[in-house]
Design goal:
The protein contains 5 helices and 8 strands, in the order ααββββαββαββα. The protein has about 230 residues and is α/β, with parallel strands linked by helices. β2 and β3 form a beta hairpin.
Amino acid sequence: MVGKFDEADECCEWALRLDPESKELRKMQDDVKEARRALEVREKEQEKRENARLEKREMVQQAIAIRSGLTFDLSPDNMKKRDLYAWEVSEHCVELDPESAHLLWPVVFLYPESKESDFVQQFDEATSLYDMLATVLAQPPPWDNQQRPAYTVDSVDTYFLARPLGGMEKDERLVKVKSTMRLATILENPKYNILDGIPSFLVLPKSSPFTDQFIEHYRQQRLANDSAITKSDK
């Protein structure tokens, strides 16, 4: 782009040698120079923003590297994004709070019974599941019974699906989480793999027929997998 401004300026200089009194040519040359200065300012601002983005990106990566217990997994589509870190393959990415040095995670709460979900864009790793759910479920969800809600912070249990790296849905196991645990502690559980950079949790009522059936489904799945492994070892 700068080269084109150079060419335009040279054309104006050449034309002014032929007609040095032309006000139109003078104005055209001034406009070209002003446009070039404006472009240079924009390019410097863009370079400054890009450098800040890269610095911020590396700070997040360093913070993740320090937390050696974190394990990431990728869905097949995101495995192609080789120029990205595993934590930044999704639209929403973990961030670093410069004041507290805490990681702020994008987190999804899934409600299997209603097939609904809640998205928390910045879940501080030092916050417990209980405290976050107390905020998320402070009011009954629109899909819950408004008079007698089944989903309150004290009437639900939280789980995650443990899947081996590169595993499939049939390999998943249901793991119950203590709601008093901090997010950072849960994410460093050896069984927890952060899929596509976004942690997720299942929220189920403590006492309901659906919860019983849901847990039984994964119990049977675990037994079937264990049986298959035993047979293959023989």
